[in-house]
Amino acid sequence: SNLKKHFPINGGVLGKRVGEVKAVDGLSFFVKKGETLGIVGESGCGKSTTGRLILRLLEPTEGKVIFNNQDITSLSNSEMRKLRRDMQIIFQDPYASLNPRHNVEKILEEPLIVHGIGDKKERKRKVREMLEIVGLSSYHAKRYPHQFSGGQRQRIGIAKALMTNPSLIIADEPVSALDVSIQSQVLNLMEDLQKEYGLTYIFIAHDLGVVRHISDRVGVMYLGRLIELTDSEKLYRKPLHPYTKALLDAVPIPDPDYKREAIEVSGEIPSPSNPPSGCAFHTRCSSCMDICKSIRPDFKEVEPGHYVACHLY
Ligand code: SF4
Ligand code: MG
């Protein structure tokens, strides 16, 4: 609810604060239990920061995160540690999050030790069970991260996230570093696990293609804000925001009957430390009107469940 994260920019010889980057600048949305919410945007739009704010790996500048009816932004560190069992993250590069000096058994055991779950024997059993669940084998337990392929390493990353039986998983570009053929295997695994364990996913990606099939709803971010959010089916069939239309133009569609109006986006994404006035997209929007340059459009519900921030609607 109204989530913000502003990072100071320090400069000069004295390192004084010279400005700030509004990485996340007023986000409000909900995720339903058991659904997958895709969050999409170009790099620097604040999507990873959003994921970290939800898990409180970063403290928000303003706003709240409410999880199972509890405001977790006001919890103490020790209360938060208990809750972390229930919320886990999968990273883009599992290699960076897996300790290269530890074998898989030790890597997967760690979350159980941190949360005081089970004795040594139970932990070892659970590690072997989990390896099977993510499509690896118990004989992989004694191997080290470098002995696996990228796809297998992401399976280990997923296994690690699942060790504590979480209900919410934030997946931050979990397949972006993988070959296309391997991407679909990992996405299928994630879908199977979701069905089996009733998991809720927030799935962060930089293009709309990847999240299309896995997401129930998709939100599009631009410069720290959501600009459109609706059911997946609707977003791909009938996008409203000019930026969403432009992003979709970059995604090939398999449906030959579906025609999309071509939308151009000119120029680079502006710096989040100096965002344009009014609608932050106005410098690149081919539908820009006078009002867009001075007044920021509200993020409002224009049809049931379809939210958009644009003066055209
Ligand atoms: Fe384009 Fe104006 Fe809509 Fe922004 S508010 S996306 S500039 S039409
Ligand atoms: Mg990122």
From TrEMBL:
<keyword id="KW-0067">ATP-binding</keyword>
<dbReference type="InterPro" id="IPR017871">
    <property type="entry name" value="ABC_transporter-like_CS"/>
</dbReference>
<comment type="similarity">
    <text>Belongs to the ABC transporter superfamily.</text>
</comment>
<dbReference type="GO" id="GO:0016887">
    <property type="term" value="F:ATP hydrolysis activity"/>
</dbReference>
<dbReference type="InterPro" id="IPR013563">
    <property type="entry name" value="Oligopep_ABC_C"/>
</dbReference>
<dbReference type="InterPro" id="IPR003439">
    <property type="entry name" value="ABC_transporter-like_ATP-bd"/>
</dbReference>
<keyword id="KW-0813">Transport</keyword>
<dbReference type="Pfam" id="PF00005">
    <property type="entry name" value="ABC_tran"/>
</dbReference>
<dbReference type="GO" id="GO:0005524">
    <property type="term" value="F:ATP binding"/>
</dbReference>
<dbReference type="Pfam" id="PF08352">
    <property type="entry name" value="oligo_HPY"/>
</dbReference>
<dbReference type="GO" id="GO:0015833">
    <property type="term" value="P:peptide transport"/>
</dbReference>
<feature type="domain" description="ABC transporter">
    <location>
        <begin position="1"/>
        <end position="248"/>
    </location>
</feature>
<dbReference type="InterPro" id="IPR050319">
    <property type="entry name" value="ABC_transp_ATP-bind"/>
</dbReference>
<keyword id="KW-0547">Nucleotide-binding</keyword>
<protein>
    <submittedName>
        <fullName>Dipeptide ABC transporter ATP-binding protein</fullName>
    </submittedName>
</protein>
<dbReference type="InterPro" id="IPR003593">
    <property type="entry name" value="AAA+_ATPase"/>
</dbReference>
<dbReference type="GO" id="GO:0055085">
    <property type="term" value="P:transmembrane transport"/>
</dbReference>
<dbReference type="InterPro" id="IPR027417">
    <property type="entry name" value="P-loop_NTPase"/>
</dbReference>
